[in-house]
Amino acid sequence: MHMFDASSTIYGWDNYPLAQFPGLWDWLGSQIDSDLVTLSETAHREVYLKTPDCGQWLKDNGLTIVANTPATLQEAPQIKSLLNIVGDDYGGGVGENDLLIIASAKIEGATLVSDEKKQQILPADHKKFKIPAVCAYLNSAVPCENFLEYIVSSGQSF
Predict the structure, then answer these.
(1) CB-based burial label for 40 (10 Å; 0-12, 13-18, 19+)
(2) Within the chain, which residues score under 50 in pLDDT?
(3) Total structural domains in the chain?
(4) What is the CATH classification number for the domain harbouring 7?
(5) Domain that holds residue 77
(6) How many CB atoms lie within 10 A of CB 3?
(7) CA distance 95 to 116
(8) Predicted pLDDT at 138
(9) Which of 32, 115, 124, 137 is deepest in the core (most CB within 10 A)?
(10) Is 42:101 a contact under the CB 8 Å cutoff?
């Protein structure tokens, strides 16, 4: 299963418009229908707020939204602690919503699809890690790829 974060969902929607890439969106719709693609409730809320038409498309295609379960709500603070984030001092890296999205993917055993920029040189301060760096830091507990990598790894052509 692949769990998209808001950045990848919006990236795909903005850069591969439905009108120009109907085959891609038909295929994504079938992936959603088969529960092979999902979003956490946190990511879904972000998508709906930033791109309501994309949020509506997801709803119309029967997206399964993964709720923030007690396990997710316990895992997010553990990841926060691993990154040495105290209180609201996030340091420019992942934020509270990102932690919930990563925790959801970890709990679900999903590959996280994120288009946050990969940091070529990781900051010494873990608080500055972006989503892909946090996923790598978790020792493959949460595999992470971006939207294009997801499409390429699927082997589909459109």
Answers:
(1) buried
(2) none
(3) 1
(4) 3.40.50.1010
(5) 2-154
(6) 25
(7) 12
(8) 87
(9) 115
(10) yes
DSSP for 40-86 reads EHHHHHHHHHH-HHHHHHHHHTTPPEEP--HHHHHHHHHHHHHTT-B
Tokens 């926060």 found at: 80
Q: pTM of the entire structure?
A: 0.94
**Quick one: pLDDT at residue 158?**
86
Tokens of 77: 């603070």
Structure-block tokens of residue 98? 């990102």
Sheet holding 37-40, edge to edge: 65-66, 37-40, 2-4, 111-113, 144-145
Residue 71 identity: A
The neighbouring-strand residues paired with 61 are none
Burial of 74 (0-12, 13-18, 19+ CB in 10 A): exposed
Phi, psi values for residue 136, rounded to 5°: -65, -35
Locus of tokens 């919930």: 100
Alpha carbon 152 to its chain centroid, in Å, reads 17
What would the two tokens of residue 157 be?
């052509």
Helices (H) and strands (E) in the chain, counts: 8, 5
